[in-house]
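Render this sequence as a predicted structure.
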Amino acid sequence: MFILLINTIYVLIILMSEVLKDQTGAKALIPHPGYKIPCYLFLERAQSSSNRVGRIDIPGGRRNDTDQSILGGLEREVDEETGLQIVTHGNLRPHQIYQQTIERRPQYPNVNRFTFLANVVEVRPVELSEEHERSFWLPRHEVLQEDLDDSLRELMESSTLSRVENYMQHLGLLQLVR
């Protein structure tokens, strides 16, 4: 009986470690090409959302088992949340610009979050999913006045983003109206 109990506990520990292993997520910082300064697409969580109600974030989410890659997951999430298609090849394909590990409470897995600068195939009105109630385009210095998701605030306040914007503009990968 004791051996059976030990084996059962061992199996439960293995199952819990699989369930609680770190997850991978991808977010898209999408610039609007019709502005002279970089303006990005932001989404506000809906009241019906189970968590982070009213918080501002950018499109994206966790990779799931059907995604062939992290970029495949990013493409799926952006489409689901906004109805927009991101460019997936050539010079305007997504470029990773930031990486964060979001540490959560012990009973939840951590999330390794990768943020990509991602251009859209066509700028058109956003078609929001149920999890968001509003979308808007703002420069990063203005969005800092909003109720941001903590991870997004870290990105928007980082000097990394300024350097990335300058470099991408120099290469012609951040298309802005001159």
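Summary. Residues 2-19 form the longest helix (18 residues). The radius of gyration is 19 Å.
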